[in-house]
Amino acid sequence: MKPATDTIWDWLDKVPDPEIPVISVVDLGIVRDVRWDGDTVEVAVTPTYSGCPATTVISLDIETALRDHGLDKIRITTRINPPWTTDWLSDTGRAKLLEYGIAPPTAAGGPDACPRCKSANVKRISQFGSTPCKAQWQCKDCLEPFDYFKCI
Amino acid sequence: MTHTAAYFEFLCRMGDNTLVLGHRVSEWCGHAPVLEEDIALANTALDLIGQTQMWLGLAGEVEGKNRDADKLAMLRDVWDFRNCLLVEQPNGDFGQTMMRQFLFDVWHLAMLTELKNSSEQRVADIAAKAIKEVMYHVERSGETVIGLGDGTSESHARMQKALDLLWPYVGELFIPDAVDIAMAEAGIAPDLGKLRDTFDAQVGDVLAAATLTIPDGNFAHKGGRSGTQHSEHLGHLLTQMQWLQRAYPGATW
Fold first, then answer.
1. Which of B34, B38, B46, B143 to mutate to test the interface with A (most CBs of A within 10 A)?
2. Rounded to an integer, what distance in angstroms lies between the CA atom of residue A24 and that of residue A33?
3. CB A128 to CB B39 under 8 A?
4. Of A31, A32, A43, whose CA–CA distance to A74 is shortest?
5. Residue A53 banded pLDDT, cuts 50, 70, 90
6. A125 and chain B in contact, CB less than 8 A
7. Span A98-129, pLDDT tens digits
8. How far apart are CA B238 and CA B67, in angstroms?
9. Which residues does chain B have within 8 Å of residue A58's beta carbon, measured at their own beta carbons?
10. Burial class (CB in 10 A: 0-12, 13-18, 19+), A62
11. What is the arithmetic mean of pLDDT over A73-81?
């Protein structure tokens, strides 16, 4: 029996992002589509950044999760149009990032506040950070450096 | 030249630019002047290599000779590469690397902006994806060129020297040949000459803020994009980049 696509979405919502394991691949907005093509389940995934090394691991993790749920005919496709945007990050995902210590993306292009002490007195150190999707910022009050999830 | 052959050449030019520059920039990994710059350079290299996979992946499909992005990157020799001469120039010091990056980034952004409207949907898709990354590249390289150009007398002198060295490699990016004309006629890529005004305006603004002077003269080294006359540096780069496939042909893991 074929599980409903809604059920599959729920399964995928339990697959953590390999680099930022507090959020799922669904929270991150990179799972674009789940559909049945005959008896094969097809999952469309979009990369965050074109060179992100996590992309291949994510596809493998998705496949493994679906196999663990008993599916054996699986096709993972890459879809680059429309390109991934941080607008696709779920509200749950944004809240989890903040709780984890990563400032979520904002349209203003910089974090609202330090994720630790909540001070708005922050400065940019570099537009590039520990992964392609993050920038390095620092709080000028508590002095802690922190990651900011870049808005693209 | 058939349409397919010209289209393949065009895709190789896009992919080889990002591949060769991506490799060059990756040579800094672990050697940059400060940690933040090391990370920024590695991230930039990663973006460029990611874009290479899309361009050369499509090139391989268009060619239809069972060559994927890996085969095109690792199993061709110098004369088959179609990158512009600018990106194969050695890193030099950090300033020279950033000047090369800046000149390329401004061209790259202008080119991708036009390619977003390509008549080939897949070209437009790759451009739309890449442009988001390149906007970060050009912001950083531009800021760095200004910071170092309008910095100390030492950093200013080095940036001026880098500009004098690299400027003659800029012209090649705007001189169309038969491939470019065919692509422009098909609506796949823009008329290269049209990009020049955008480029000159943006580069001019940044270099003025950086207190740097654009050298006189329009002499342009050519031969990278056609593959007829790469500089001596590309061969040396390939011996590093392709070392594994040259020592152990067909190795996989």
1. B46
2. 15
3. yes
4. A43
5. confident
6. yes
7. 999 999 999 888 999 999 999 999 999 999 99
8. 18
9. none
10. buried
11. 94
Q: Are B149 and B207 in contact (CB under 8 A)?
A: yes
What pLDDT, in 10s, does the model give residues B60-80?
Answer: 999 999 999 999 999 999 999
Contacts of B124 in chain A (CB under 8 A): 81
Q: Do A50 and B129 touch (CB under 8 A)?
A: yes
pTM of the entire predicted model: 0.95
Closest-CA residue of A relative to B132 is A152
Interface residue A152 vs chain B (CB under 8 A)? yes
Give the relative orientation of helices B178-185 and B3-26 as an angle to the nearest 10 degrees.
Answer: 110
Question: For residues B133 and A50, is the Cβ–Cβ distance under 8 A?
Answer: yes
Q: What tokens appear for B149 in the block? A: 């150009």
How large is the ipTM? 0.90
Q: Which of B190, B172, B175 is nearest to B89 (CA)?
A: B172
